[in-house]
Design goal:
mainly alpha, 3 helices
Length: about 90
Amino acid sequence: MSKKMPKLKTEEEEINFWDKHSFADFVGESKEVKAKFPKPKKQPVPILLDEGRVMALKQLASSKGIGYGTLVKIWIVERLNKEIALLKHT
């Protein structure tokens, strides 16, 4: 039998409560909720590459089982994160 969930007034009370209790004891008290997560707005970034580089991208991406646009996005995000990290350390 599940226990009755107490009313917790502060985040600190919740933290202390869950440190000492198991969610499994309160299964009957839980309700399904639908959460909405906003999608980040995306913007196209046009770039021009010579045909040989596009073909190389397509072949490499295909060998990884992804589209070449996805590969380009991965590389841009990785490099952008690296550059931002370098800026933070200077």
